[in-house]
Amino acid sequence: MATLVRDTLENYSAASNLMHNEKIREMMGSGQTIYHFGFGQSPFPIMDKAADKLKKHASEAAYLPVAGIEELRAAIRDFHKKYDAISFSSDDVIVGPGSKELIFLLMNIFQGDILVISPSWTSYKPQVMLSGHKANIVPTTMEDEWKIKPEKFTQYLKENNLSGTKLLIMNNPDNPTGTLYTQQELSDLSDVFKRHNVIVLSDEIYGRLTFDDSFVSMAKVYPEGTILCSGMSKWASMGGWRLGYHVYPPQLSSLKNAVKSAASHTYTTVAAPIQYAVAEVLRDLDTCDAYMRHTTRIMAAVGQYCHKELAEVGVHSIRPKGGFYIFPNLEILKPKLKARGIERCEDMVNALFEETSVSVMAGGPAFLRPETELTVRLCYVNFDGAKALAESERIGLGACLPDNFVQTQCSHLHEGIQALKQWIKKILES
Ligand SMILES: Cc1ncc(COP(=O)(O)O)c(C=O)c1O
């Protein structure tokens, strides 16, 4: 029978992280102890009273405006004014069922070249393919902290003859590498973007999970050319509520209108109770603020712990600055693994899992890396977030978390990292 799927989707498969997560959940359900570092979901419970707000609005059952209700868009505007010192109108905002859907619609309506950075989050390239575009992959190196650099980026555009209008997908702080662009770096890049007609989709979904106060929105540095993309899934731990948004500058209102039209023909509007509840959650900025301070200091402690522990066995990674991820490079194991017949990163992570029950995602093609490069994505969220958050709240924001916080409050993660270290040592000594 002739193939029924578009041939441009030949190598396309379901989101590898979600599939991986389903498989591991099944195993955990059958009682096996697994150190699950493969899936980037917030470990924390949602903010106090958020569920009550949702219950209160459960009977809201009408279709709502496509772009979202005014109260919600205004709350999003005020939230970014407070945290990012940027100003925009509530009319510039489109709310969608997760930021992922809005990125996909944007790619669908965009005319021009789409650029995705290597490494990057697993869904960008499949979305480019689904939208019928070709993905142009912009390389980076670990020496450059996996960041794009102005001169190299300019050279890349030249070599690939990318002279028209382009849409660059940037993630800051980054999944999978945990890196963060400084204000100076963003500013230097924005000069290049202006010169070369680059519109940036700045995916800042981890922006409010930056470990210090250094996060700067691309929309502040390059307002006329940035589409700000964020949502409630990560910092507010509401992935399953499915609420994300885009903010378009007036200069890009044609893109906003086309995305809005595509939204009207596809998902129509975000679920009404969710919109009303999130508008109330975002209006309670004091609660949001305290929640963020606690959760980010816990994530900072855990991220730094992972970085330090891996460095102790000679594994290099960029010290994470925000989000849920670190991207260690296990190339030091290459000769020993080769002697065992293991050359592909996928085979290495399978061996690791079989021998230690530690699950990480192979870098490789899912993250736009070569199959044999031994980089892996480790999501450091496999701990009891409710317990860690309660302890941080008990300690209070006036005092620091103790040095042994991860060992005592995130013990499952601690055990998993120790198991990973032992395995690395064993391979190196073999
Ligand atoms: C970089 C990045 N962008 C977007 C998303 C999707 O977020 P949402 O739940 O808003 O669709 C994720 C979720 O894993 C992500 O890691």
Features:
430 residues; alpha/beta; Aspartate Aminotransferase, domain 1; Aspartate Aminotransferase, domain 2; binds pyridoxal-5'-phosphate; seven-stranded mixed sheet
Q: Describe it for me?
A:
With 430 residues, the chain is an alpha/beta fold. It folds into two domains: 7-45 and 287-429, Aspartate Aminotransferase, domain 1, CATH 3.90.1150.10; 61-284, Aspartate Aminotransferase, domain 2 (3-Layer(aba) Sandwich). Helix content is 43%, strand content 11%. It has 16 helices and twelve strands. The protein has helices at residues 16-29, 50-56, 70-84, 99-109, 124-130, 150-159, 183-195, 218-221, 253-265, 272-283, 285-312, 334-339, 345-356, 385-395, 405-409, 411-429, and strands at residues 35-36, 93-96, 113-118, 135-139, 166-171, 198-203, 226-231, 244-247, 325-326, 358-359, 361-362, 376-379. The strands form three sheets. It has a seven-stranded mixed β-sheet, with helices on both faces. Strands 9-12-11 form a three-stranded antiparallel β-sheet. A two-stranded parallel sheet has the order 1-10. Strand 3, helix 5 and strand 4 form a beta-alpha-beta unit. Helix 4 (99-109) crosses helix 5 and helix 6 (150-159) runs parallel beside helix 7 (183-195). The protein is globular, with a radius of gyration of 22 Å. The model has no long low-confidence stretch (mean pLDDT 96).
